[in-house]
Every structure is written in structure tokens, then in C-alpha cells.
Design a protein that fits this description.
- There is one protein chain.
- With 155 residues, the chain is α+β, with helices and mostly antiparallel strands.
- It has a single domain, classed as Nuclear Transport Factor 2, Chain: A (Roll).
- Helices cover 35% and strands 41% of the residues.
- A six-stranded mixed β-sheet has the order 2-1-6-5-4-3.
- Strand 5 and strand 6 form a beta hairpin.
- The longest helix has 20 residues.
Length: 155
């Protein structure tokens, strides 16, 4: 649990540092779009449970905090990224926050809906995602992701 608080503290301090810096890395529309495209590709890979995509585009030391609050690390985290039981993962209000020359946070809200089970599926649920991307060479790699439930749908 302490590690979760450490990661949350890191994210909050990263946001605060980014807001406080006046002479940080230049933010460009093309870098924002590249990161948004990377996140959208990640979402597509999640829907298909595309292990090859994850192996190419996720850092080996990847960590994630799922909507249940559990911290997963390394291979366990990478293996948990895919979810072929998803019927929908629709992002909206995507934003990019640069956290350094080779680090960025993509944050957004999403409608998350699982496939129907038996005669009635669960309602849509709303989550907030924060993904930390690091540039390694010429490629952006997913380093950390946290999903937070914001609202559970009604039946």
C-alpha cells in the first residue's frame, strides 16, 4: 500500500512541477498527437488482448494500479493490460502533460463496458486513466498506468 501512495505522490508532484516550471520542455501539437495516438493504440491493443503490442510498446519495468487499487509490477502488470472481455473502452477529454524532456502523462476519462454475460451485462462504468510514457530512443514506451473508478453506471 505504501508503494501505491509513493506512486500517487510521484504523479501529483510531477503535475505540480510541470505547472510550476516556466522554462520546461517545449510542448508541441505533434508530440501531443503522437502520445494521444500511442494511447489510442494501447486502448485498441487492450480490447484485443494483443500481447505482441504490449511486448513492443510497454517498458519492461511497467507498473500499474488497477481500478481495484491493486499494484501490479513487471510481467504481471503487462499480462493484466489486455482484456478481451471489454465491449467498450471509449476515451474522451484526452490531455497530455509533459513531465520532462522524455516523459509525458496522458490523462483522460473513459466509458468502460464489459461484454454481456448471460441475459444482461453490467452497465457502463466511467474511469479516469493516467498513463506515464517515457521516450526510449525514438519510441514512446508505457511506464505506468493507473485506472480510477469515477462513476459506476446504473442498471
Amino acid at each position: 500500500m505504501n508503494r501505491i501512495w509513493t506512486i500517487c505522490g510521484f504523479l501529483l508532484s510531477t503535475f505540480a512541477l510541470g505547472a510550476a516550471q516556466t522554462s520546461g520542455p517545449a510542448k508541441s501539437a505533434s508530440s501531443d498527437q503522437a502520445l494521444i495516438d500511442a494511447e489510442k493504440s494501447l486502448i485498441e491493443a487492450k480490447m484485443k488482448d494483443d500481447g505482441r503490442y504490449f511486448n513492443r510498446n510497454v517498458a519492461a519495468d511497467f507498473e500499474m494500479v488497477g481500478v481495484d487499487g491493486q499494484l501490479l509490477e513487471g510481467r504481471d502488470a503487462i499480462d493484466n493490460l489486455g482484456d478481451s472481455d471489454l465491449a467498450e473502452l471509449t476515451p474522451y477529454e484526452m490531455k497530455v502533460v509533459l513531465a520532462g524532456e522524455n516523459t509525458a502523462i496522458v490523462t483522460y476519462d473513459a466509458i468502460v463496458r464489459e461484454k454481456t454475460r448471460e441475459d444482461q451485462g453490467p452497465p457502463p462504468r466511467y474511469q479516469h486513466f493516467s498513463s506515464v510514457w517515457v521516450k526510449q530512443g525514438d519510441a514512446w514506451k508505457l511506464k505506468f498506468q493507473q485506472a480510477t473508478a469515477t462513476k459506476w453506471g446504473d442498471w
